[in-house]
């Protein structure tokens, strides 16, 4: 329920939606800037509470919180503040030949009241990042954080309380039943981040009201390590990308295809990279503060079940494959000898488990990738530009990282989003602003020869005019 009152989610929606006409007239770019600046200050002032909340929810390391939670939101705010004047500017459009005598422009207009449903894995960034775009566009919003990260949800509510007026943004906390009640309301835009399975439910609910959606989903993001890769750099980047937030990242490397001729040296570098980051022994890794924990016992059990099922079917662990249920710790795990029949190769892993799959021919890798749902990200590690370009052109994915993992998320001048099963629409920067914006075309007649084309059509003069316009 609403953390500021006993109103139901439906009543909160009605309150915000009722102010839409007035807000559209009054919430000008200067007021949007002020709201974004207030949000930035509140995040800064609540940094200690943010660190404590994420540590409580799943023991996320402080440096990782700053890098992956606070930095993306503050960067999104800074980018919006720098560009808001340009984004909100009315754009004049040149007439086409058939429209000579008219004046046209595109007017960015807020869609209205938005719903932001955020996941648990990056609770701050994935709640407040879309909110930045909504405010920049001039929308009111209800933010629904995940109930699986309750301490983080509470601090998100605190930040919004301190920064933003109640007639602009509300945080509504609760479980699935709250999300269901919210999805019954006729929002003007829904921004959802989560699994493809729930994304389909959100899209079906939005369809009842013909509400536009942005769906940031996920899937099995593959990595291809080619024969010409810089193995030390590739191994270090893949290890960081995979095990950051204990692998609970929608764009984390899900599995690695490695050219067979470099398999052994790559695995040696990967093992060394894990040791440098998290400890050389199992005891050191279990004690490290640099590795987050799994969000809850159910997810822990699912991941350990994946590992045990793969091992019982013949897979071997190069590292890890151990866990401790009470603290929800799973060691950084690299699996060899997996096959397509195993759950670990069929389902999105979303944890610190990395299958490594050798290949002889890159064509086979492309065939396997294209046979499955389109991934949110594809990572290629290689120095041969020709091979990189062939792999990029032969595959379809939300984004491509070349000799890098995860970092494209932080680039505000790039759209972030999936394709097909991995998402609908795009976020960040100008793309996030446009997700919450209706680009309204306005056409004004000055001296257009439109009256010459009106009935009656039977005269020879009209036929000649119509032919002239066609030419």
Automatic annotation (TrEMBL):
Residues 26-441 form the Aldehyde dehydrogenase domain. This is Aldehyde dehydrogenase. InterPro entries: Ald_DH/histidinol_DH (IPR016161), Ald_DH_C (IPR016163), Ald_DH_CS_CYS (IPR016160), Ald_DH_CS_GLU (IPR029510), Ald_DH_N (IPR016162), Aldehyde_DH_dom (IPR015590), Aldehyde_DH_NAD(P) (IPR012394). Gene3D superfamilies: Aldehyde Dehydrogenase, Chain A, domain 1 (3.40.605.10), Aldehyde Dehydrogenase, Chain A, domain 2 (3.40.309.10). PROSITE patterns: ALDEHYDE_DEHYDR_CYS, ALDEHYDE_DEHYDR_GLU. Keywords: NAD, Oxidoreductase. Belongs to the aldehyde dehydrogenase family. The active site is at 216. It comes from the Bacteria. It holds the Pfam family Aldedh. Coiled coil: none annotated.
